[in-house]
């Protein structure tokens, strides 16, 4: 009776064989048939190889579960291929020939097997029967003396965590709270990926999602505890479903050194595994082809776990060599503290703490006799160790080691077994590593392109600093700080701090403010900076001692401040590196990147950070230069504007000024109101040909010259004639200028007398209380064109309630398509301003101009409004 089935199809490519092996292994482990997994994987591998490699067709794989065992069928699309049938006298050939071994293996390992034909398919099947088991027994080990039993804490805590189908935590046991420090209400509903420090590589899958989807899974990873530290755990995952059919995953977690509590024992002891022919096989070979070739992290982690189990060790580790073979980087470990787990680096040949046994197999009976022989194991309690190199074509690519707490555990025989396993896995590891590097480089290029676009999109210094930090956290680092240097004589200044947890930013900023900044060394590349971690550790230690009453004061409860102190210490307690920000041959700052306690940077990430720092330095320097130029420009422009308008008794004065162009405060239009003598005031509004800095230069000349000449007591026409000569003296830089200039003297009867000269400028408009609008002057020649000007002034009296409106042509020439506001349109708007103050008149004119067209103004605009309110009666 068939109780379960699983099916999959595989393309006719070489990698399908490994995928088929993984599919069968995961399926049978999920069904609880671990006893027959190895035989099923071997047979499946041979039959799928026949289909996709030798026959060159796709393969359909079907697994059927029954009460007696498992039947596996492999079908291909090559039915005319000659296949010897079971029970015939056909000679299947020599076992040493290239093809035909699949059927020989079926005959040797399977309880039953056969071949079935259809017009389009050929199906080879085999059935594996389950071995007889005693009731209630799945696996058992021999009785051992107490001193050989695995070590565990006084109380073993098994955390039970349940994960729903989306990867979110739905249940969190009391032991989980004790192990990791999180109360259930804090983590319920969060994804497990927020807590799991899974071995991962940027640009590749972390593997946690895949592990949660398997029917059964066992292995090691890390859980980031509430204090920020990574706790290594051994996990057993079981996929279940409730009565409603909803799937979920139950995770049992123990501390990694207590893995014996959960770990499924091997089917046979490693040193006694034999085939039916009596030939010994190494269990390490069983999983050689099981991980996908491009799953580097999974491959490395399974390698160290099997290596440890194979030699019955307490820990194992695998390091990969850098491209130049000068350093080894920890990429996978099991049974070691988390500080040894990821990306710690040691030199291969020279220097203190060198890894002297990297290129040849080595056995150390007692590490206490040769301290420093294997730096990775310093302070771990390991006494004996065997290490072997991973080599590809004679080149060192890594090192694999197994260690034990007892001395003299390993001999040359174990070294040879481990070397044999390392030789079998070295090529797969190197292939997966190269694939990872290629994906990482592609991801790095994409990251740098996006970063360059973002940095090039702003010239604001503060925004550039924020972008630098946001691009590094959390992609490259857990936290970062940016120091800036104003000039060569200035000390580095802490300008920006960012952490992936916003609650820790203030604590890190406070800590770094107490640490002397790193030296601004221009040498390219990242250098390690230990000061933040040391100071954080000391501060946390002092806080802990004070909280426990060990600093000489009275004993008291833990203070509220110790929590943030410990959290900050954990946040900056890992590796911290500094990269110089160099632009235009000058160090303008430093980019500091940090990891939390027990974490290190991988070399590829540091190289990517170095590329980013070069781009960020140039963007930051460009922002600095732009800010300086902008400040200079704004300062010069403000110097061309008049100071505050004077208060004129009996006359209201209001000005609105808009310079065209982004960042411009002054253009070709200008205005001024200034005192000339007792009771007399000058006013002017003008328009220099053009806009921008060149026009603004003539603006400054005209405004200052007007003030100087008017205060010499000259008449209005004379003032403008001399200004005309000064403009013409500028030669090629001269520009013609339209100008309305006048002198105003308030009268005792509440009126104001004006003497006006309108040199080519739009005529001023006079608004009377009855709404009548009329020009208040006559047009005369503009300035800066001819030398001999004959100008004259006109006298205008503003009666109480009258308004004089003066504008530049940016107001009257406001356009919307073919329409233009014009003089008549301005007059119509002014007609509606009776009874308004000078400020209200100017504001209404400006609103009318802005609403006349939807586009931003393309010309400078100036509006000068003066109103005589009249005498107040008691």
Automatic annotation (TrEMBL):
It holds the Pfam family SpoIIE. Coiled coil: none annotated. Keywords: Hydrolase. Residues 160-190 form the PAS domain. PROSITE patterns: PAS. SMART domains: GAF, PAS, PP2C_SIG. InterPro entries: Bact_Sigma-Reg (IPR052016), GAF (IPR003018), GAF-like_dom_sf (IPR029016), HATPase_C_sf (IPR036890), HATPase_dom (IPR003594), PAS (IPR000014), PAS-like_dom_sf (IPR035965), PAS_fold (IPR013767). This is SpoIIE family protein phosphatase.
